[in-house]
């Protein structure tokens, strides 16, 4: 069965995988330095991220959010513990296999958009697929870029787009390849409220309609309410887990770790 736009349904997408959890980690630690200067950036984290689940990671500055996300994405190696993505253990994976896993399974939305200045928005969005020799689904491209409200800016180059538009081009690029997991680091940090909502709505659609697993680091309680759950970190550990988070429950939980 297909949706009106010819896109695959959630069932079709999620049955491509058989893992209960798209991303899992057990007893993960990351320490920097030695002796008295040792920093326990991540200090014993175990967590599961189900297929199609949208998780926000919050917590005070220095609590280990970015470090944890980099570990889960295979961009950094844990000092201890195990991590698996799409059923593949990252521990001991050689560089080539890790690169392939990231290319085939993972999308990134980071503060630095990394758009190529000489390409139009459309060319930037479709580049990863073209490099991988995969076809570009024009209908899907339209659905994603319309949801992100950049459908009328596709023939412009990055320098002709606002920062918020560039950020949404980067989101569209991450979503079009339909990666199993999308990692987003402060994706709304530099955006106005309306633009931020469009971006968050796009991420939520990716989870709900296409079964993609979204893991987003944010300081913004409003952004985190778009998620299915919030993990609140403190001192490198998971201090709290909120399901169906509201602004009130998020603020209360954050207050309990910052006092
Ligand atoms: N490469 C590194 N070398 C040494 N210490 C590091 C390194 N990267 C991070 N840290 C330390 O690890 C701890 C966690 O950092 P991390 O960036 O994960 O925190 P965060 O919760 O993302 O913070 P913020 O909200 O400010 O971005 C901090 O004390 C930080 O100084």
Commentary on this structure:
By secondary structure, the chain is of the alpha/beta class. It has one domain: 3-Layer(aba) Sandwich (Rossmann fold). The protein contains 9 helices and 10 strands. It has helices spanning 10-14, 65-72, 95-105, 121-131, 138-147, 163-176, 193-210, 221-224, 247-258, and strands at 21-32, 39-50, 54-58, 80-85, 88-89, 106-109, 181-185, 213-217, 229-234, 237-243. Strands 6-7-8-3-9-10 form a 6-stranded mixed beta sheet, sandwiched between helices. Strands 2-1-4-5 form a 4-stranded antiparallel beta sheet, covered by helices on one side. Strand 9 and strand 10 form a beta hairpin. It is globular and about 55 Å long. It binds adenosine-5'-triphosphate (ATP). Adenosine-5'-triphosphate binds at residues 32, 39, 41, 59, 61-67.
CATH C-level category: Alpha Beta
Please work out how many helical segments DSSP would assign.
9
Enter the CATH topology name. Rossmann fold
Number of beta-strand segments: 10
Average pLDDT figure: 87
Domain ABC transporter: 23-259
InterPro entries: AAA+_ATPase, ABC_transporter-like_ATP-bd, ABC_transporter-like_CS, ABC_transpr_LolD-like, MacB-like_ATP-bd, P-loop_NTPase
Protein name: Putative ABC transport system ATP-binding protein
Organism: Micromonospora marina
